[in-house]
């Protein structure tokens, strides 16, 4: 650290529990600016920064106190206005491997459940489409069958009518033949 009156530093907390960020950031800022800025200014401005960070860490991102985080933020001491000016913070949450494994397993379980649900929906949709197609095809075949049956019934009816007509004609012809036969017998018997 140099003894210059205006200085920009990147403050890094290292990996810490979220509950300890305010104390750690205060100590890092004091160590970085102790030769440049008065301690009361550092404490005042870091306190304001910590309020801002609390909103991000606890309220917006809803990190647990036991979550491990790392904060990196640039800070500049403004000698004219006697204050620290902070840039945008980078806040990283570090997740233990066991937690990552659990998150992974939960995510995979959710994906598998979602996949199975969608497969069931798709199977149901395909089954309904298949049943509709089969039903339409069955209706079409039934309609064609009924039409053919009606046509065959008409043909059968026509044949019955012709057979009846022919039977009448045959009966009439038999009657004529019988008469001819009787006439011939009578003529021959004389």
Question: What coarse outline follows from CA principal-axis ratios?
Answer: rod-shaped
Helix content: 55-70%
What's the gyration radius in Å? Answer: 51 Å
**How do the helices and strands follow one another from N- to C-terminus?**
EEHHEEEH
Separate helix tally: 3
Structural class: alpha+beta
Number of β-strand runs: 5
In terms of DSSP E residues, the strand content is: 5-15%
Largest sheet: 5 strands, antiparallel
Summed over residues and divided by their number, the pLDDT gives a mean of: 91
**Terminal CA distance:** 165 Å
Q: Detail the poorly predicted runs.
A: none
Give an overview in words:
The chain is of the alpha+beta class. The protein has a domain at 8-94. The chain is built from three helices and five strands, in the order ββααβββα. It has helices at residues 21-33, 39-60, 97-189; strands at 8-12, 16-17, 68-78, 83-86, 90-94. Strands 1, 2, 3, 4 and 5 form a five-stranded antiparallel sheet that branches. A hairpin with a 4-residue loop joins β3 and β4 (83-86). α1 packs antiparallel against α2 (39-60). It is rod-shaped and about 170 Å long. The mean pLDDT is 91.
Secondary structure layout plus pairing:
Layout: E1 8-12, E2 16-17, H1 21-33, H2 39-60, E3 68-78, E4 83-86, E5 90-94, H3 97-189
Antiparallel strand pairs: 1-3, 2-3, 3-4, 3-5
């Amino acid at each position: 650290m140099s003894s210059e009156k205006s200085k920009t530093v990147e403050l890094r907390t290292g990996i810490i529990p979220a509950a300890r960020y305010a104390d750690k950031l205060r100590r890092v800022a004091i160590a970085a600016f102790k030769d440049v800025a008065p301690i009361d200014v550092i404490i005042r401005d870091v306190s304001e920064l910590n309020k801002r960070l609390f909103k991000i860490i606890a309220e917006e991102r809803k990190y647990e106190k036991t979550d491990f985080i790392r904060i990196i933020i640039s800070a500049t001491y403004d000698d004219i206005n006697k204050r620290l000016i902070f840039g945008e913070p980078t806040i990283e949450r570090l997740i233990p491997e066991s937690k990552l494994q659990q998150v992974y397993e939960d995510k995979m379980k959710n994906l598998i459940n979602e996949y199975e649900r969608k497969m069931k929906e798709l199977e149901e949709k395909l089954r309904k489409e298949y049943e509709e197609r089969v039903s339409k095809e069955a209706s079409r075949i039934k309609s064609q069958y009924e039409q053919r049956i009606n046509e065959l019934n008409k043909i059968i009816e026509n044949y019955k009518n012709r057979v009846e007509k022919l039977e009448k004609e045959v009966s009439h012809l038999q009657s004529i033949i019988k008469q001819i036969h009787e006439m011939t017998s009578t003529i021959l018997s004389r």
